[in-house]
């Protein structure tokens, strides 16, 4: 068991050593997040419909940037990326089915 | 025999310096943890049975002299909470999954043994909190096991602690799911490819994904109920602009897939039992394996068929009715393949097979009445009637319950190294089967007649049906006492079991009974599929 964990750990280290985000990358992502937040605030002044659509479209982009760079998803293996995609896909399906009620009620 | 007998002690012998109760409470051995779940769950099960019997007595007397209406509400809530959260959901995965999954994939334990023990402690902590909720605060919750808002946020009973108990139990379920998925991915024996895995492992795998993906949703939902009650956040409260139908959505997004958490491992156990007693490979191995994944996948998309009368949009009603029909396809694939497995088999009639066939019969009634419920027009008529209660018990008790009994009979000699009396468990089958059908078929009929569920009183035209059901409940309870009495006697006094009493060919039958501490002296190398019966079908 401990050998298996050690192997998994080594493999994780090997993957991670391929590249870490630099401070420059972090700052660029941070600026992008600030701009997106600003856009959301701006959209919220254009009425409720614009605010809701802004939240539904821009917030996932912000979350993706955080996942990808700040949480190092970019440097993970295909398995972990796949697991997260499956989870997000499941969530998306739940949202769509939920809207079949909410949007037509 | 893969293991040279006598080289490793049985897992039932204390090892590691601790003895007695402490050796059990601190164990990380998957087999002992499986047994600890078994003992706890059977105890909870009998509490749930007792409450069920009292409810039947109330309906028999008509005049409700026994208990008040408020107590009746608490009884059906507690009966549901105990049976759902403490017996059927953990049921087969926690007991047989823990005990047999590592052995079936050729591993010495699960991937995270300590996490496995933590899961059991989460389970027991949740159970204790659920019991505490009955006697503290405003008394036992009276909402029904589904804790529907807005009533659950308004009632003065102790819903807060009860939903917190369910929240804690959810952690146990998720941790077990994570453990099983990792074990299957990382610990299969050399040569055990995905399609050489026994079908019970496929079922446990599909179940585990539901546990991981769906349980967090109900966990958050229950936290929202607690926040509603404690600080009045208003998300489910229409008076504050909230939406009580949203609660139903969030609750059933978990709780309908939870039905598959309950039934899929049961189906997996049946897929192990049938080839063993038919002495031939299972018919349609891949179809059954993929149908488990399909049931898990499609079954996660049908939740709102519980809500056809909730005020949900007509469009959503149609969508969810259609999706519900699709689940019948993989379920039917399993049933047809099981029956085909028996065709031209060298059938060895043993108690486990009889109980497994009973499962198929009762599950078919449960499944077909489920298709009726899924049809919009019928559902509007029978929603919230005894028909739903009857259907649900045919699936959960006739399905998961009888599969649990069948699995117990099949694997009992391996788990305890003792053999039970075949005559005793055959004798128990009679009152179990007759009592079950008297109780729950009467409910189907009562529901079609219009008897609403969860009602304290009933009109005179329903009384005969209630009388039949109540007598059935006595027979059923008698059968349960005979069944578990026979097994309890066998644990202490039963004859020593052979290592392979049924002529099984999967890995658990290649190790001694009871299995040694680390299951295998050497990890086996797998060279063929799981149901490899040589010599023309004879083991």
Q: List low-confidence stretches of chain B.
A: 1-5
Structural class of chain B: mainly alpha
The strand count of chain A comes to: 0
Q: What is the end-to-end distance of chain A? A: 53 Å
Average pLDDT of chain A, to the nearest integer? 84
The gist of it:
With 105 residues, chain A is an all-alpha fold.
Ordered list of secondary-structure elements with their pairings:
The complex is a heterodimer of chains A (105) and B (539).
Chain A (H helix, E strand, L loop, with lengths): L1 H15 L6 H22 L3 H23 L7 H25 L3
Chain B lengths: L19 H6 L4 H32 L7 H20 L2 H14 L8 H23 L15 H4 L4 H28 L12 H33 L12 H35 L6 H15 L14 H29 L8 H24 L1 H7 L3 H31 L1 E2 L2 H28 L13 H31 L1 E2 L43
Antiparallel strand pairs in B: 1-2
Helix pairs in contact in B: 2-3, 2-4, 2-5, 2-16, 3-5, 4-7, 4-8, 4-9, 4-14, 5-7, 7-8, 8-9, 8-10, 9-10, 9-11, 9-12, 9-14, 10-11, 11-12, 12-14, 12-15, 14-15, 15-16
Give a description of the structure.
The complex is a heterodimer of chains A (105) and B (539). Chain A has helices spanning 2-16, 23-44, 48-70, 78-102. Chain A is mainly alpha-helical and 105 residues long. Chain A is flat. Chain B has 539 residues and is mostly helical. Chain B has one domain (20-510): Up-down Bundle (Cytochrome C Oxidase, Chain A). Helices cover 67% and strands 1% of the residues of chain B. Chain B has helices spanning 20-25, 30-61, 69-88, 91-104, 113-135, 151-154, 159-186, 199-231, 244-278, 285-299, 314-342, 351-374, 376-382, 386-416, 422-449, 463-493; strands at 418-419, 495-496. A two-stranded antiparallel sheet of chain B has the order 1-2. Chain B is globular, with a radius of gyration of 23 Å. The two termini of chain B are 14 Å apart. At the A-B interface, α4 of A face α9 and α11 of B.
Characteristic key phrases:
heterodimer, A: about 100 residues, mainly alpha, 2 domains, 4 helices, about 80% helix, B: about 550 residues, Cytochrome C Oxidase, Chain A, two-stranded antiparallel ribbon, 16 helices, about 65% helix, globular, disordered N terminus
């Amino acid at each position: 068991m401990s050998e298996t964990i050690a192997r998994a750990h080594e493999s994780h280290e090997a993957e991670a050593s391929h590249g870490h985000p630099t401070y420059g990358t972090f700052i660029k992502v941070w600026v992008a997040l600030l701009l997106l937040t600003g856009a959301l605030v701006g959209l919220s002044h254009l009425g409720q419909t614009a605010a809701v659509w802004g939240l539904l479209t821009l917030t996932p982009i912000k979350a993706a940037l955080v996942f990808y760079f700040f949480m190092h998803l970019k440097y993970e293996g295909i398995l972990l990326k796949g697991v997260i995609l499956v989870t997000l896909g499941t969530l998306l399906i739940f949202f769509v089915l939920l809207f079949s009620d909410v949007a037509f009620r | 025999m893969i293991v040279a007998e006598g080289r490793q002690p049985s897992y039932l012998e204390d090892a590691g310096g601790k003895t007695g109760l402490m050796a059990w409470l601190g164990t990380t051995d998957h087999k002992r943890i499986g047994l600890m779940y078994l003992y706890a769950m059977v105890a909870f099960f009998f509490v749930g049975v007792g409450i069920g019997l009292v409810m039947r007595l109330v309906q028999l007397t008509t005049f409700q002299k026994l208990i008040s209406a408020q107590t009746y509400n608490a009884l059906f809530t507690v009966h549901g909470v105990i049976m759902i959260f403490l017996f059927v959901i953990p049921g087969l995965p926690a007991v047989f999954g823990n005990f047999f999954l590592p052995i079936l994939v050729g591993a010495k334990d699960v991937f995270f043994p300590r996490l496995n023990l933590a899961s059991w402690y989460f389970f027991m902590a949740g159970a204790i909190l659920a019991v505490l909720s009955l006697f503290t605060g405003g008394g036992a919750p009276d909402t029904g096991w589904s804790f529907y808002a807005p009533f659950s946020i308004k009632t003065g009973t102790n819903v807060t602690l009860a939903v917190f108990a369910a929240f804690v139990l959810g952690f146990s379920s998720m941790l077990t799911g994570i453990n099983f998925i990792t074990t299957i991915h990382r610990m299969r024996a050399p040569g055990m490819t995905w399609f050489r895995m026994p079908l019970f492992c496929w079922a446990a795998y599909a179940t585990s994904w539901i546990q991981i993906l769906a349980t967090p949703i109900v966990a958050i939902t229950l936290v929202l109920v607690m926040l509603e009650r404690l600080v009045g956040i208003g998300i489910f409260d229409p008076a504050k602009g909230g939406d009580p139908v949203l609660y139903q959505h969030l609750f059933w997004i978990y709780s309908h897939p939870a039905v598959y958490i309950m039934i899929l491992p049961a189906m997996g156990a049946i897929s192990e039992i049938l080839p063993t007693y038919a002495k031939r490979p299972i018919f349609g191995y891949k179809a059954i394996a993929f149908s488990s994944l399909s049931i898990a996948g499609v079954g996660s998309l049908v939740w709102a068929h519980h809500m056809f009368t909730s005020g949900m949009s007509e469009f959503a009603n149609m969508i969810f009715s259609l999706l519900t029909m699709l689940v019948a396809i993989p379920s039917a694939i399993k049933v047809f393949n099981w029956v085909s497995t028996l065709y031209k088999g060298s059938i060895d009639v043993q108690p486990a097979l009889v109980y497994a066939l009973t499962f198929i019969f009762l599950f078919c009634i449960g499944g077909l009445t489920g298709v009726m419920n899924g049809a919009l027009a019928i559902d509007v008529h029978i929603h919230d009637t005894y028909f739903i209660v009857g259907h649900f018990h045919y699936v959960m008790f006739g399905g998961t319950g009888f599969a649990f009994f069948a699995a117990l009979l099949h694997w009992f000699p391996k788990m305890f190294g003792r053999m039970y009396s075949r005559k005793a468990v055959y004798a128990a089958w009679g009152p179990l089967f007759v009592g079950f059908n008297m109780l729950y078929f009467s409910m189907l009929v009562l529901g079609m007649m219009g008897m609403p569920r969860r009602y304290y009183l009933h009109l005179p035209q329903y009384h005969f049906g209630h009388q039949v059901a109540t007598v059935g409940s006595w027979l059923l309870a008698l059968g349960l006492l005979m069944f578990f009495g026979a097994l309890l006697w066998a644990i202490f006094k039963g004859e020593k079991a052979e290592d392979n009493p049924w002529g099984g060919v999967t890995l658990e039958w290649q190790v001694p009974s009871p299995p040694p501490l680390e299951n295998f002296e050497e990890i086996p190398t797998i060279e063929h599929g799981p149901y490899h019966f040589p010599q023309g079908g004879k083991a």
